[in-house]
Automatic annotation (TrEMBL):
Domain of life: Bacteria
TM segment ranges: none
An example Gene Ontology molecular-function term: siderophore uptake transmembrane transporter activity
Membrane topology (UniProt): Multi-pass membrane protein
Domain TonB-dependent receptor-like beta-barrel: 321-756
Family: Belongs to the TonB-dependent receptor family.
Biological classification of the source: Bacteria, Pseudomonadati, Pseudomonadota, Alphaproteobacteria, Sphingomonadales
Subcellular location: Cell outer membrane
Keywords noted in UniProt: Cell outer membrane, Ion transport, Iron, Iron transport, Membrane, Receptor, Signal, TonB box, Transmembrane, Transmembrane beta strand, Transport
GO CC annotations on file: cell outer membrane
Leader peptide range in chain numbering: 1-20
Name the record gives this protein: Iron complex outermembrane receptor protein
Domain (TonB-dependent receptor plug): residue spans on this chain: 64-173
Alphabetical list of Pfam families matching this protein: Plug, TonB_dep_Rec_b-barrel
Length: 798
């Protein structure tokens, strides 16, 4: 309740101060502030994106590389598809997921120009989503924040986001999502999908239309259930969104929204090259065979006991295994880590807020966005490395009398954050001055616990349930983050030349209070009050323009048990707390845009200096026994180019193509305290393909419609020393459909196929982290991509 009041109190003060004045609207989508990245996604000349909903590729008028896709484009993908997958066609965007929807969070990865997901910024209607990490420590994933059908636009700034973006992680660009406004006309939209792996997805949305005086609302619900495409288990999600808008015409608007999500998904097993060689890409957890999981754990215990006995006695003579009857060797071609019994991720989120837009005078405007977010989460793993103790509590609290050599390990989250973003804009002639401020208070409770399992034919706990009655707690902490950010930006439009310049400053205070365990506690701060940004656009008539920009950014530390600097020991934290610096970046880019008739072209080049890269490793020799610590290990140099083209050949037929080149290398050689090489100057950055080529053909004559898209990326390294990589691949998706006449009910039917050529490939890399080297191919940090999948959807009201 306190955090909710923090979020809404500034709104109440603003509203009371202007209640007697007229409330003007901004040039916004669904009540979102007029940020140059998140604003109306149509081209600046006012032409509509096209009858079939073009991708707005170029971002004319922007001094940065900015590209936007529309709701119509997202609507061409299988319902429930992540908007991150929809933007994967844009240049510089590297998106990976092991499921056909791109929504399975453990596998979902997106990077821009070599910066990984937790080095980017994400917002929804201006509300910060944090870095969208798998562990909900400072935000939530877009696949939970809103139903995909309720998005109006997604904008990508590949190099640097808008100055006032509410993010403390956007070293390398931002992705800003804009939600759909309630319709002025009452209506009902619905869709139902069935497809591979018994996928069932349903969506329904009701719009009230204008109820009088500009009051209108919308409410929607979506349900998804699908079996895993390999192994056993399912992924399930309930979502509900509601929005209410009071529109004062050209005087302003007030928007309130509440979004809910409950997502529970069984995990796929992380793979290594060794596992793939022995068992193939279809190897997975053994969730269908609990007795086998218990047996493998017993064998592991027997092997450990035998090794200890032999060390003590020199032979196994007289050895008695703790689990008689199961022996010492594993079954043929199986090891303990090939597949665990089960693992899962559970996330329950509530996100709500109020957006207030007003024009205080003819030249002065104000936007305020206040929000509150609550998350309850759990990541689980049935581990064979921690046996259940005799007498440990069962799920119902009774003591376990037949303990299994397994236990149920969780990472548990409880997140509460609230904040307010305010923007004041002053326009005087050709000049516009913008001041923004953002404050957020975030409290995270995080714990690692073990729960008891029974030695029975069936398991006594379900990985998709929130657990009760723990056996032990490894660590438990309370992590507080206070964020304060401001920006000052000025835009001068002097005819053919537009110049914008400004700076932002931020201070992020982190505090860890450990209730149990040996992880670090204490305080740390990230602060820089001057991070400049400057850009210019030169208009060469109505068809072409040249643009350039320079930006500096900082990524603040995170307060969590699962991320540095608090994921290390107390001694290690004390050693670096006053010396370690946050990661920073300097980005320069420039390019040209051109359009004529149905053709749009864009070309951009960029250079990035990424400094103070953070890496955790031991600073002493192994014999010293010093704990791993967090270290600044130098920088990364990146340069590259992106070219994109959109061509509307006919009113019904369009083509999109893009190519991007990225050269990102480490600039320092790094060794640990024992002299082991961890990184080497000149090696390529992990998970960063040098070449990506994307293409798409779309046909839509208002009756028949279809698309086919192809996505190529070159090889990606998953070790810092580049001794292991995954090969390049081409993926093809396609869809085809037909809209029936209104006299027949106005339905549309669509069939879609992902991975049309049934390519066998590795999708996500780094799921288990990155290592310096992997000479034997044993690093379990790879996830297989889904094979060909098909879906059929019936729609009405879209």
């Amino acid at each position: 309740m306190v955090k909710f009041l923090i979020g809404v109190a500034p709104l109440a003060l603003i509203a009371s101060g202007v209640s007697a004045q007229t409330l003007p609207a901004q040039a916004v989508v669904a009540g979102v502030a007029t940020d140059p990245v998140a604003a109306d996604p149509t081209p600046v000349d006012g032409e509509q994106a096209g009858a079939s909903g073009d991708v707005v590729v170029l971002g004319f008028g922007q001094s940065r590389q900015v590209q936007t896709i529309t709701a119509a484009d997202l609507g061409r993908l299988t319902p429930g598809t992540s908007p991150l997958k929809a933007i994967s066609k844009l240049p510089g965007v590297n998106f990976q997921a092991s499921d056909p929807f791109g929504a399975y969070e453990w596998s979902t990865r997106i990077s821009l120009r070599g910066f990984n997901q937790n080095q980017l910024g994400f917002t929804l209607d201006g509300v910060p989503l944090g870095d969208m990490s798998y562990g909900p420590t400072n935000g939530l994933h877009i696949s939970r924040a809103i139903i995909s059908e309720n998005l109006a636009a997604t904008s990508v700034a590949q190099g640097a986001g808008a100055l006032g973006t509410a993010s403390t992680s956007n070293l390398g660009g931002t992705i800003q999502f804009t939600s759909r406004a309630p319709s002025d006309i009452a209506g009902l939209a619905a869709s139902g999908t069935y497809g591979s792996n018994d996928t069932i997805r349903a969506f329904v949305r009701a719009d009230s239309g204008d109820l009088g005086g500009g009051l209108k609302g919308t409410i929607s619900y979506a349900y998804l259930t699908t079996d895993k495409w390999k192994g056993f288990g399912s992924q399930r999600q309930h979502q509900a969104n509601a929005k209410l808008v009071k529109d004062f015409g050209d005087r302003g608007s007030i928007t309130g929204f509440v979004n809910f999500s409950d997502r529970r998904e069984n995990d796929y097993q992380d793979l290594s090259y060794d596992i793939i060689r022995r068992r193939g890409l279809y190897n997975d957890n053994i969730t269908n065979d609990y007795p086998l999981a218990v047996r493998l754990a017993k064998i592991a215990n027997n092997q450990a006991a035998a090794a200890a006995y032999q060390r003590a006695n020199g032979s196994l003579t007289g050895f008695s295994a703790p689990y008689a009857g199961v022996g010492l060797p594993y079954p043929q071609n199986v090891t303990l880590d090939d597949g665990y019994y089960d693992a899962a991720g559970l996330r329950r989120d509530y996100l709500g807020g109020i957006i207030f837009d007003a024009k205080l005078t003819d030249s002065l405007s104000l936007t305020s966005t206040s929000y509150y977010h609550h998350n309850k989460g759990q990541g689980s793993w049935i581990t064979p490395y921690s046996p259940t103790m005799l007498g440990a509590p069962n799920a119902d609290g009774t003591p376990i009398t037949n303990p299994a050599p397994l236990s149920f390990r969780t990472t548990e989250y409880s997140l509460d954050r609230a904040g307010t973003i305010a923007k004041l804009g002053l326009t005087t002639g050709a000049n516009r001055l913008e001041l923004t401020g953002w404050y957020e208070s975030n409290t995270l409770h995080q714990a690692r616990r073990l729960y008891g399992m029974t030695d029975t034919a069936t398991p006594n706990r379900d990985a998709r349930d929130f657990q009760k009655n723990p056996m032990s707690t490894a660590w438990n902490g309370k992590y507080d983050t206070e964020t304060l950010q401001y920006s000052v930006g000025d835009t001068l439009d002097i005819g053919q030349l537009t110049i914008n310049a400004g700076w932002k400053g931020m201070r992020v205070r982190n505090q860890a209070n450990l209730l149990a365990g040996t992880l670090a506690r204490g305080k740390i701060q990230s602060q820089d009050w001057f991070l400049p940004q400057v850009g210019a656009v030169l208009h060469l008539g109505n068809q072409a323009e040249v643009f350039a920009s320079y930006t500096e950014n900082m990524r603040a530390f995170i307060a969590a048990a699962t991320a540095p600097p608090f994921s290390i020991s107390q001694a290690a934290f004390n050693a670096v707390a006053n010396t370690v610096r946050p990661e920073k970046s300097k980005t320069a880019e420039g390019g040209v845009r051109y359009r004529t008739g149905g053709l749009q072209l864009s070309a951009v080049g960029y250079y990035i200096d990424f400094s103070d890269r953070l890496l955790t490793y031991s600073i002493g020799t192994a014999i010293q026994g010093l704990p791993p610590t967090l270290n600044n290990v130098g920088g990364v140099e990146s340069y590259g180019a992106e070219v994109s083209a959109f061509y509307r050949l006919t009113p019904a037929f369009s083509a999109l193509a893009s190519y991007s080149y990225n050269h990102a290398t480490y600039q320092q050689t790094v060794r640990d305290g024992s002299g082991n090489l961890l990184a080497e100057k000149g090696r390529y950055v992990v998970d960063t393909p040098q070449n990506m080529v994307k293409g798409e053909l779309v046909y839509d004559d208002s009756r028949f419609f279809g698309r086919v898209g192809a996505d190529y990326m070159s090889k990606r390294y998953f070790t810092y020393l580049n001794d292991q990589s995954v090969a390049g691949r081409v993926l093809v998706d396609a869809s085809i459909g037909y809209r029936f006449p209104e006299a027949w009910g106005g339905f549309a039917i669509e069939g879609s196929v992902t991975n049309l050529t049934d390519k066998r490939y590795i999708s996500t890399i780094g799921s288990g982290g990155f290592t310096a080297t992997d000479p034997n191919g044993t690093a379990q940090t790879l996830l297989a991509g889904a094979p060909r999948q098909w879906f059929v959807t019936l729609k009405k009201g879209f």
